[in-house]
Amino acid sequence: MHKGYLVTIGALVAITLVFMPRGFCQSDELKARRVQEDLLKAARNNLRNHDLDEAIAGFGALLQRDKSEVPVDLRAIALQGLVEAQSERRLQQSSPFPALKLLWSTYVLPRIGLLLVLVFGLLVYLLRRIPGGRIAIVFEDLPSVSANPIDASTRSDRNRALTSSVLELLETPQPLGISDLHMDIMPGTNEPGFGGLRPTQDTSVISDFVPSDHQMKIASVEFNLHDIFGYVAQLFRVPPRTIRGWIRDVPDGCRGFAQLLSRSRKPVPGHIWQAAATGKNARDLVVSDLAAQIIVHLKKTHLTRDWQSFRAFNEGIRKLRLDIRSGPASCDAREAQRCFEQALAYDAANWIARFQLALVLCRDGQLEVALRHFELLCSVMEGVLRRSIGRLPLMLRGLTAWAHRHRSRRDEPESCDANESTLAIAEHLRMYPECPFVVIYNEALALSDFRDGAHCADAVKQLDALANLAVKGDSMFSKYSHCLRRLSSRSAGELRLYSLSAQANILASRYVSDGANPNCDKGALKNTQRQVEELVADIEKACHERRQEHWRSLQTTRAVALSAYARILESDGDTSSAQETLYKALAAEPSLVDAHLQLAELFVRHKRSLADDWAIRAESSLLRATELNPSCERAQFLRAEIYADAVIDRMSEAKLVLSELTSYDRSKAAAYLGLAKLVLLGDKTGEATVEALDYLDRHIHISGTFSEDAETVFEQIVDGPIASDVLSRQLSHLLDVLGRVGGAAPSARVDERRRIEEAISTVYELRERE
After folding, report:
1. Which of 39-43, 233-237, 323-327, 722-726 tops mean pLDDT?
2. Is the pTM of this model over 0.70?
3. Rounded CA gap, 491 and 501, in Å?
4. What backbone phi and psi angles, to 5 degrees, belong to 165?
């Protein structure tokens, strides 16, 4: 019972303590401290909410009380808060935008939004001032002063056409990367330049230049429909820089002008280009001059710093019209050669122009000059590697080149010093380390075109070294060790395929030429045949292993090697195997001109032993070869031979084909000799004899020789009817020509001098007889 009382009393005491008013049992000092803490808390809340007046009043009220009434710790806190409030008050009074500062410090969301707006504005500001980026092109075709006014739509169309023509010329040379090269299979095997490695597309369009959207203009305001409907979006787009220009016909030619405008449409100092030309193609010359100046001065190419050299190079490329499906006409090749030589005259450091010139010279048969150009290119690359890559790490060398380019852009915008050219070549070698090996490959092919044993042996040696680039430490290429280390597996693999096929082609040609000599070494011939078979087997194996790859070189090199092996088979008398091998080559590469020519020659030589319709098949192969390479002279001669056959009897067509060949410099002499033979096959009258003698006279005069074939034709003419005054005059002229040729013939050509003396004595006898 006593326990129940005690529990009840304890519960009543607990309830009383819980619900007793605050401070009921506290002393007066504790109550006063509690009040002061509440005042201090209210003052700090006012300071936090930037209610500075209330905060200062609250802190001041505590500090104005007697020191004995306010504890020391509370006085220190109040003093600190008063100092903060007064400091913020002075800061607000000194700021020019107190309301903005108050808004910034009070509200969080507007603070973040304002920060984003400021960051976006800074980014737009920086983007508008970053150099580079796309450049809009717009040109106006201004009418001449004396021309009649034209309507707005016609003028707009002319402006767009002019702008498009300028954009088409804004292109730069392709780099010598192995993936962008192809083997030149347009000429025949026995023609110079066969197998050379050249860019698939010699130039590529610069993507930095785009046509301007602003083609409509009223006064100084430009607009189009996109601007009208997308005005808000235009505010957030960084505008490109613009090149604005015009071209106008003048009485004495044409003039053009262009200048670079910044993103704010203000002229950029030092970026004004002008051009003028006279003559028939003055407008085209002005457009090409302006395009070359724009590319070079804006540093869109690092191959040359001279715009005239760049313009001449591009003109040579357009003249050459190099493409994997067609060959250049001889006149265009000569014009291209002239352009490349002009490019080197303006800037001798334009190494890509030198490379293209060497390739053109190889095709034209000027092998000695082409070799000098290849040797010069190799020496330049060796010097660049020795000076730049050999001393600095590759990354540091790249940074040095970048710094030099930007320094020269700022200080000397039109400079073309040797150091910058060296850095440009070094940069190209760093990005395309296969470049020196491509030059060496073409140099080896130029050596093989001499067709003598010593040069062919050197060419095979170089090609064998290129085929084994994967073997490190080759002493022949030790000077290109930096490029060799950076060479990719694909580059080494494709160079190996090209080199193996070129070796097979050279060795097969040597096999056929040596086999025609009855005193040749049979053991050496067997060794050569075995080497070609091994090369073909290596190429077949490499193509089978990489059959999943889409390399251009796989089937092309296989077709060239098979075509070479077919010549050996035909030389050994195995015509059916040779025919089957040529069909395999054409299946691998249908545009291989040499395979079509060999197949036609096979039908012409062996006729019905291969097929009853040999003439139709041979003509079909030759027509296809002519479609692939319209300037292929060997195909034309074979067509004329087929048409002149006694069974075919298409003499008029054969004469027409040979007459067309007289327009080619290299085939002119042989064409005249073929015409002489063709005339003697037909009519045996005196007029035919006069015509044949005239063709023979031209052949001897152009060729400067009196060959065995020419002697045979001469004997046929002498045995024919001779009874006209015209023939007598022709014989007199032939006598003069033979005298000049005999006097110029070297003493080593004993047989030729003997033939000339016999022909001269025969002419004298004929004249005495008459």
Report:
1. 39-43
2. yes
3. 16
4. -65, -35
